[in-house]
């Protein structure tokens, strides 16, 4: 991992238990405003792909060349729209909204990504010019998964859409919990976890509690 990737997306912020949920946790928002998104430009997006393990650095370096700044802006806009659609879906579940169905817009985006993808074995270099992302499967080369059509102009958005599709297909949203201090999500393994990151939201909560008790003690 490069130095800039470490600074922007330290591994201690990759906490959700699945890249699809980590994709929602790219905001700094103690007030749950979701206004300050760290996915603010193309280098930030590329660094996130690397830090999250969704695409390896070799893959992205191979396919990101020759694209204009305008196109980068359009891709980033599409990816942030996808993020908002998925966020609303997960948030509705966490809020306890009964029988949340996948919204039409999100469903359409996932279907389009699947329509362009192909099934391939994990962890292998398949055809010439197509390099596989790394680290997706424990049984590398033994099981199959949907692979991004690397020559498609939609490859960046598709890479994330396929993570979301895989997550929705393999995880119950009942397992997802939201941090008590911000809007970040994580998979709950039944240990009563309250915070996305103890060093951020856990610490902030302790500081608040300390301040409140010292105010109460004042004469
Ligand atoms: Zn938090």
Keywords:
219 residues, binds zinc ion, Jann2411-like fold, mainly alpha, ABATE_dom_sf, ABATE domain-containing protein, ABATE, two-stranded antiparallel sheet
Structure described in brief:
This protein is mainly alpha-helical and 219 residues long. 47% of the residues lie in helices and 8% in strands. InterPro entries: ABATE, ABATE_dom_sf, Znf_CGNR.
Characterise the protein shown here:
This protein is mostly helical and 219 residues long. The chain has one domain: Orthogonal Bundle (Jann2411-like fold). 47% of the residues lie in helices and 8% in strands. It is built from 8 helices and 6 strands. It has helices at 3-8, 19-22, 42-52, 57-63, 69-94, 104-116, 155-170, 198-217; strands at residues 27-28, 36-37, 118-121, 144-147, 176-178, 185-187. The strands form 3 sheets. It has a two-stranded antiparallel ribbon. A two-stranded antiparallel sheet has the order 3-4. A two-stranded antiparallel ribbon has the order 5-6. Helix 5 runs parallel beside helix 7 (155-170) and helix 6 (104-116) crosses helix 7. It is globular, with a radius of gyration of 19 Å. The chain starts with a helix and ends with a helix. Mean pLDDT is 86; it is low at 124-139. Residues 179, 181-182, 184, 195-196, 201 line the site of zinc ion (ZN). Zinc ion binds at residues 179, 181-182, 184, 195-196, 201.
């Amino acid at each position: 991992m490069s130095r800039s990737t470490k600074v922007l997306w330290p591994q201690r912020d990759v906490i959700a238990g699945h890249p699809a949920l980590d994709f929602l946790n790219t905001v700094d928002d103690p007030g749950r405003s979701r206004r300050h998104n760290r996915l603010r430009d193309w280098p930030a997006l590329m660094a996130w792909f690397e830090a999250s393990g969704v695409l390896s650095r070799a893959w992205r370096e191979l396919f990101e060349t020759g694209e204009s700044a305008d196109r980068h802006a359009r891709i980033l806009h599409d990816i942030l729209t996808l993020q908002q659609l998925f966020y609303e879906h997960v948030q509705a579940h966490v809020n306890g909204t009964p029988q949340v169905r996948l919204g039409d817009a999100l469903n359409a985006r996932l279907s389009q990504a699947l329509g362009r993808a192909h099934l391939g074995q994990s962890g292998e270099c398949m055809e010439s010019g197509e390099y596989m992302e790394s680290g997706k499967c424990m049984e590398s080369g033994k099981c199959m998964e949907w692979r991004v059509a690397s020559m498609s102009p939609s490859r960046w958005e598709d890479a994330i859409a396929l993570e979301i599709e895989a997550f929705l297909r393999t995880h119950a949203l009942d397992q997802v919990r939201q941090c008590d201090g911000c809007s970040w999500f994580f998979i709950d393994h039944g240990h009563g976890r309250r915070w996305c990151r103890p060093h951020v939201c856990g610490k902030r909560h302790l500081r608040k509690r300390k301040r409140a008790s010292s105010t109460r003690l004042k004469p």
